[in-house]
Amino acid sequence: MQDYQHQGSAAQPLIRIAIGAVCISFAPVLVKAVGGGIPGPTGIGMYRCLIGAALLFLAALHRRDRLLLPGRVMALLALAGFIFFLDLFVWHRSIILAGAGMATILGNTQVFATAVLSLLLFKEKLTGRFILAAVSAMAGVILLVGIGSDVTFDGQYLKGIVFGLLTGIVYASFLITIRQVGRIRDNGTNLTRIAWISLFSGMFLGIAALVERDLGPPPDLKTWSLLFLLALVAQSAGWLLIARSLPKVPGAVGGLLLLLQPVLATVWGAFLFREHLEPVQMIGAAVTLVAIYVGSLKR
């Protein structure tokens, strides 16, 4: 009986990560469903983060978690919030211009950007296997974006590709900042940390949306509902499940489970928006995903 209980408790983090990956896989779909009108891609990010922050703070209050954290931690959370603002700024544009699946796969190339930044900042060495994975991923991305296929490279599509690749770089910076926050003992919980990051990100996105003049109230109940789902499912539930459970599983297993996000985002995009990948692009997607997984293994 105890063995069954132990196996069940060991499987719980895996299940939570898988559910979290499914949750965040809906983010690009919901962003594209809202579209590029009013609110625009930056405004969508603002509503996503501010509604998500409100939900997270309410949950923290219900649990009686400590909300105010030490100044050093708050400064790092503000930095993480600014970087996450940059992440959503470029990623939402990539989703609208290049498609939900394409943008998500390109964003997940953060694995390689994270490794390079870790080398520069923390002197973490890179193995030959990782370098081979990085080269393979570059080849996969070349095929994925449509080189060698019948894809039409118009201006909007090319902008979407560039924004997707920038997402990987910014997202890597965000993850490194989060790792530094996690090393500080401050009696804070993942719930309160993600709540503060969401709030800071929402504030920066709001300022950017005002500058762009694309910020306005959602035009109808459908848009409000999509934004609320984006905040609840992706920003709150998905990230909480992943942040809580990822440290409890081997890196290889966690990396494999998180690949559910780009795979499912591609499926949702094809099913809901008829996003079509040419055969060459499908091969490129497969090569890129395998390379991302190999690159996510412990260096």
TrEMBL record:
Domain named EamA: which ranges? 17-145, 159-294
Keyword annotations of the record: Membrane, Transmembrane, Transmembrane helix
- UniProt keyword tRNA processing, yes or no: no
Q: Does the keyword Transmembrane apply?
A: yes
Pfam families (alphabetical): EamA
Q: Which InterPro entries match?
A: EamA_dom, EmrE-like
The protein depicted here goes by the name DMT family transporter
Q: Which organism is it from?
A: Candidatus Polarisedimenticola svalbardensis
Q: What is the lineage of its organism?
A: Bacteria, Pseudomonadati, Acidobacteriota, Candidatus Polarisedimenticolia, Candidatus Polarisedimenticolales
